[in-house]
Amino acid sequence: MDLSNKKIALLGSSTGIGFECALQASLLGAEVLLVARNQHNLQDARHKIAKLSKCRPDILQIDLCDPGSEEVFKQYINSSWGGELDCLLLNSGGPSFSAQDLDVRAATWQNSFQSLFLSQILIAEFAINLMKANNFGRIVSLSSSGIIEPQVGLIVSNSIRAALAGWIKTISMQVATHNITLNTVVLGRVQTNRLDTIEQNKAQQSNLPLEEFRANSISQIPCGRYGTAEEVAHLVCFLFSDLAAYINGTSIRVDGGLIKQI
Fold first, then answer.
1. Is residue 216 part of a domain?
2. If we measure between CA atoms, which residue out of 176, 151, 157, 21 comes closest to residue 90?
């Protein structure tokens, strides 16, 4: 794979899987823009990537929960990157675990809809218009196994991420003639801080010690372990590359065989 001379913006890339995607893209020669809401984490991520690769990433602080965050993104790309963008990673931290799915507050739905759906599609629409001019573009959305097998306690994520997957599929059918592809990466249990938090909440709700809960969780995965952020990043970078030109409008699972559906 070679991502040399590719300009790649990655949402939610100061930590976790988003960060690993940015790091791997940098190692493959891309110019990357780290986008996240925490300035300290962004600066720390830039420092780490600069030490490990030849790239010193640009950083942009925006909060996808804020209406208008896409305008800040647009202004940055137009002013600092000359209106050029080859690849885009759609990614946002998920909503918190819900002990009672019927009791989710309206404000939680509204904030989550803004960050998990509306801000991301507005940024993607802007990106697609730029990509059309160059007859090249790659958009990859990081999603959750909950869009295929909904998980109790994660009703907000299950619902809104499924809506984004529907948008990705619909748009992918309309822009492919411009050599622009859109795909969804469906994550199973990948070792991240978010997974740790979810499992702590589920273990507490189940009245089980955390280690016992995790052992039960791992036993359900045919590969017998959790995935790693690096494994996800390798797939994302492949989808960014020229090698993936005929992969479009699909959902690819990185789950160790966890999801039971064919």
1. no
2. 21
For Cα atoms 210, 232, 187, give the angle at the middle one, nearest 5 degrees: 55
Residue 182 amino acid letter:
L
Is residue 205 very low, low, confident or very high in pLDDT (cuts 50, 70, 90)?
confident
The enclosing domain of 77 has a CATH number of: 3.40.50.720
What's the token pair of residue 155? Answer: 């009703």
User: What's the first-to-final CA gap in the chain, in angstroms?
Assistant: 29
The number of folded domains in the chain is 1
Whole-prediction pTM: 0.94
Those residues with Cβ within 8 angstroms of residue 156's Cβ, 6 or more apart along the chain or in another chain: 94, 95, 98, 104, 108, 109, 112, 116
- What confidence tens digit (pLDDT) does each residue in 250-261 have? 999 999 999 998
Q: Which domain covers residue 165, as residue numbers?
A: 7-188+227-251
Is 70 a member of any domain?
yes
Any domain includes 1: no
Better-scored residue on pLDDT, 193 or 157: 157
Question: In the chain, at which residue ranges do the beta strands (DSSP E only) sit?
Answer: 7-11, 31-36, 58-61, 87-90, 137-144, 180-187, 251-254
Token digits for 219? Answer: 């036993």
| Type of residue numbered 159 | S
The pLDDT of residue 196 is above 90: no
- DSSP string covering 17-84: HHHHHHHHHHHTT-EEEEEES-HHHHHHHHHHHHHHSS---EEEE--TTSTTHHHHHHHHHHHHSTT-
